[in-house]
Write a structure and sequence with these properties.
The chain is an alpha+beta fold and about 900 residues long. The chain contains 31 helices and 27 strands. About 45% of the residues lie in helices and about 15% in strands. It starts with a strand and ends with a helix. The C terminus is likely disordered.
């Protein structure tokens, strides 16, 4: 049997023989690219070795997939030990002949080449091992066996499990390639991996061998070249302190000579020449490539190429200019940022601004009893795509003398009662009326009229919800202040004990999901399928199955979506709600079905029992005067605290129907060749929704690129910078937007300290990445995120205050929370070890951090918390009161 193939005998059709790396090197060689010579020990050799030594059964028993990454460590050690025996005489002879053809004991690089590696859908880069500067036949044979064994490293097995690849189907070839004694080497991407631009080649370069660049162990020069003209767009020269070079035994790291450390590795002409090779390779494969290169004696060599598997979509540069159109007005992100953390889609921005303007005018009219707010006084415009409440100076001045009545209405329960008895029922009625409509019989204008009506109803409801925040905020803050200052002794429980254990809509949604998971666990075949089958496939099967158990599961799940599927991850209606895309819910249900989740009924029962016992104890212990004040304050806080979560959870009631209506409009515009996909309707302006228009596909793509660039920005909480709104800036609970160092400061949201890996999630599309025990790191969390709290060990957000959803729910789950960091999702990487201190309001980056540098920050004062929590629709009222106090002082 032939176990050796030369590079020029292989091509992209030989992956099953040569693995991804070997097949690519053969393809590049046959394309006449400068590839160092070599050969591949094909997968048949690996299979023959396994068969000769009867390893199949032993490997199958040990390589059982597990949800615990650490569970692979022991199996890996035991499997790799099985590859200690010598290869057969026949294979030894073939390898010796092929190696001798390269030269007398020529140094070679020995690299693994798996059959599921370097493919368009999964690169598997770095999952198996590489051995450099291998010399002599005996050294080569050892390296070959070590390569085979590296198919079963813990990281490789865990990676394959995440990619749902059957361990029994993978095999390994070994690439043996003549070493290039490189004076420089690096990596080249033929599309820009940071912004997705396909006409930009990005080159990383360092002195010495390239493995140190691939592993990330050395600093590199970074060059961006525009193709096809070879113009260097940018060049950054690093301080390259060390380099990897050949040694007597493999390789070693040496200091870079002083005269080279800050010298560029490549000239502009070198970079253009290398980019031209990249362009040839991309053209050959028909897709952007990740290429490893080396240079020796002035000649460039290509030592590997693979598809780029995670190339982002093209984006415009992030904005840096935050100039506002009306410098005398105050632009505040305030509470609405919890629902709109990202730049707005064009259609949503067009519809929400006038709707919010009208709803705010109506609110202020009710609060102060007259029409003193004009169209020019309030609104919800965008700055660099981000929504801001805008308040004019004139409007604030007219409100100043009316604030006493407004505050009486807010804090006597008038507005809370109005939400419960009027706003909520009205919103439900409007949504119900539109849901009964036959969409196919409506014209496009009628559909858009319905969309506008639903957005207006939602804006009116959301504004009503904002009036509940001052009551909920004040009740909790005043009780906490009274308890800490007047009641609490040294060994007494913290104030939050008295405010936990209440039911709210997000908690009820969690209980509903838990009930379904418990029911599922009692049906073995169904439960096993839920855990093993991809979520989309499972949902499709459940929807069409005739099996009574599957049908019952589908009925119960649909009932859950009917009750709770309208909760929004993001208020912009371009984002699906759970009713549209229930896959993220299945990730949490899998967690419950596997038996790892705590019973939410029991958790809430224990919290409520502790709350009630603590309340009774203090009422019996206190003197009559303090007992009376304690009773009034604690009962007030316990009554209104859940109200905010109940109200916020229903903001998206209209969204399932609204998205169905826009989907129908989108299908019609697609049919008229105005847009390419139905969902492109979200990227149109309201004035453009007309079936008679020419194609807007190019404009849609440009707007998407602009939005992606805007999403990289960190919007200031208040604008204009340096304007009159700065008098209020110091009262907002926002951390610095320019934090550096190993400690990120935020707002203490829920007590406790935990050290665990971070999991940075951008939205529901990432929920499947969450692992039990991870720290949930997100821009914001809304009620729709609550299902993840059962899996999280802590919560960290960019946005939010002490009474935001993240804080309230984290306390119910008993996990630490640090909120309003402004930079967490940009500074923290998934998998990074962090320490979350929910008492100090800090997040420490432990990978390489110095513990002595941790600087605790004080919790916010009660006054600061009240102003922060009331900053939404009541922002104008809060500011007016502050100004009145300033005048009196």
């Amino acid at each position: 049997m032939i176990f050796i193939k030369k590079f020029d005998e292989l091509g992209r059709d030989n992956i099953d023989q040569a693995g991804g790396k070997g097949a690519n090197l053969g393809e590049l060689t046959r394309a006449d690219l400068p590839v160092p010579t070599g050969f591949v020990i094909i997968t048949d050799a690996y299979r023959a070795y396994v068969a000769d030594h009867h390893l199949d059964g032993q490997i199958a028993k040990l390589a059982v997939p597990t949800d615990d990454p650490a569970g692979y460590d022991d199996s890996s050690v035991r499997i790799q030990a099985l590859f200690a025996d010598q290869v057969s005489d026949a294979l030894r002879a073939e390898i010796a002949e092929a190696y001798a053809a390269l030269g007398q004991d020529v140094p070679v690089a020995v690299r693994s080449s798996a059959t599921a590696e370097d493919l368009p859908e999964a690169s598997f880069a770095g999952q198996q091992d590489t051995y450099l500067n291998v010399r002599g036949l005996e050294d080569l044979l050892v390296a070959v066996r070590d390569c085979w064994a590296s198919l079963w490293t813990a990281r490789a097995m865990a990676y394959r499990a995440r990619q749902t690849l059957d361990p029994a189907t993978v095999s390994l070839a070994v690439v043996v390639q003549q070493m290039v004694d490189a004076d420089a080497a690096g990596v080249m991407f033929t599309a820009n991996p940071s912004n997705g631009h396909r006409d930009q080649t990005v080159i990383s370069a360092a002195w010495g061998l390239g493995e140190s660049v691939v592993s990330g162990s050395v600093n590199t020069d970074n060059i961006v070249v525009r193709e096809p003209d070879g113009t260097v767009l940018s060049s950054e020269t690093a301080d390259k302190a060390v380099m990897t070079v050949s040694a007597e035994q493999r390789t070693q790291q040496l200091p870079v000579p002083d005269d080279q450390r800050r010298q560029p590795v490549l000239s502009e002409s070198d970079a253009a020449e290398l980019a031209a090779y990249g362009s040839r390779i991309e053209h050959h494969y028909g897709a952007p490539q990740d290429i490893e290169w080396a240079r020796a004696n002035g000649q460039f060599y290509i030592v590997q190429a693979r598809p780029i598997t995670a190339l982002p979509e093209i984006e415009a540069p992030a904005p840096t200019d935050w100039t506002v159109p009306e410098p005398t007005a105050m632009y505040a992100r305030a509470s609405i940022v919890e629902q709109l953390p990202d730049p707005l889609s064009p259609l949503f921005a067009d519809l929400i601004d006038p709707a919010v303007t009208r709803s705010l005018q109506s609110l202020f009219r009710e609060l102060v009893g007259e029409d003193i707010i004009r169209d020019s006084d309030v609104g919800l415009p965008t700055v660099n795509g981000y929504a801001y409440y805008r308040y004019s100076r004139a409007g604030m001045g007219r409100l100043m003398w009316k604030s006493p009545r407004a505050f009486r209405m807010l804090f006597t329960g008038t507005m809370a009662g109005r939400w419960r008895d009027y706003s909520h029922p009205k919103y439900r009625r409007i949504v119900s009326d539109w849901t009964a409509s036959n969409l196919t019989e409506m014209s496009t204008d009628e559909l858009m009229g319905g969309v506008e009506a639903l957005v207006a109803a939602a804006a009116e409801y959301y504004t009503a919800v904002q009036t509940i925040i001052p009551v909920a905020a004040t009740s909790e803050v005043l009780f906490t202040w009274f308890y800490e200052s007047v009641v609490r002794s040294k060994d007494d429980p913290p104030a939050q004990v008295f405010l936990l254990g209440s039911d709210s809509e997000p908690i009820r949604a969690e209980k509903s999901l838990y009930e379904l998971a418990t029911w599922t666990r009692n049906h073995q075949e169904l439960a096993e399928s839920l855990l093993a089958v991809p979520p989309q496939e499972f949902l499709k099967r459940a929807a069409v199955s005739d099996d009574p158990v599957w049908h019952e599961w589908h009925t119960r799940f649909e009932a859950h979506l009917t009750a709770y599927g309208h909760t929004v991850y993001n208020l912009d209606f371009m984002n699906p709600v759970p009713a549209d895309d229930p896959v993220p819910l299945l990730q949490t249900m899998r967690f419950f079905v596997s038996g790892k989740g705590a019973d939410p009924y029991e958790r809430q029962r224990r919290l409520a029992l502790r709350r009630d016992e603590a309340t009774a104890t203090f009422l019996a212990r206190l003197d009559p005067a303090r007992a009376k004040a304690f009773r009034r304050l604690v009962h007030w806080a316990q009554r209104v605290a859940p109200m905010r979560e109940d109200a916020l959870a229903d903001v998206g009631l209209a969204w399932p129907q609204l998205r169905r209506m826009l989907a129908e409009v989108g299908r019609r515009l697609q049919g008229a060749d105005v847009i390419n996909e139905p969902d492109d309707v979200f990227w149109l302006h309201r004035s453009e929704i007309n079936e008679g228009l020419d194609s807007l596909a190019d404009q849609v793509e440009q707007r998407k690129q602009l939005w992606r660039g805007e999403r990289r920005a960190t919007p200031p909480q208040l604008l204009p910078k340096g304007g009159w709104g700065d008098v209020w800036r110091r009262w907002l609970p926002a951390a610095s937007e320019e934090q550096t160092g190993d400690v990120i400061k935020g707002i203490a949201g829920s007590a406790g300290t935990i050290t665990a890996p971070a999991r940075v999630l951008g939205g529901p599309q990432d929920f499947g990445q969450m692992q039990p025990g991870d720290v949930l790191v997100a821009s914001i969390t809304t009620p729709a995120w609550t299902s993840l709290f059962a899996m999280a060990s802590a919560v960290v957000t960019d946005i939010g205050g002490p009474l935001s959803h993240s804080s309230i729910v984290a306390r119910e789950y008993g996990i630490p929370a640090v909120l309003g960091t402004a930079v967490a999702t940009r500074r923290i990487s998934s998998g990074q070890l962090i320490r979350v201190d929910g008492d100090a309001g800090t997040v420490s980056l432990l990978d390489g951090a110095e513990q002595s540098r941790i600087e605790p920050v004080a919790k916010g004062s009660p006054r600061r918390k009240i102003i922060a929590a009331t900053a939404g629709a009541a922002a104008a009222v809060g500011l007016t009161t502050w100004l009145v106090r300033r005048r009196k002082s």
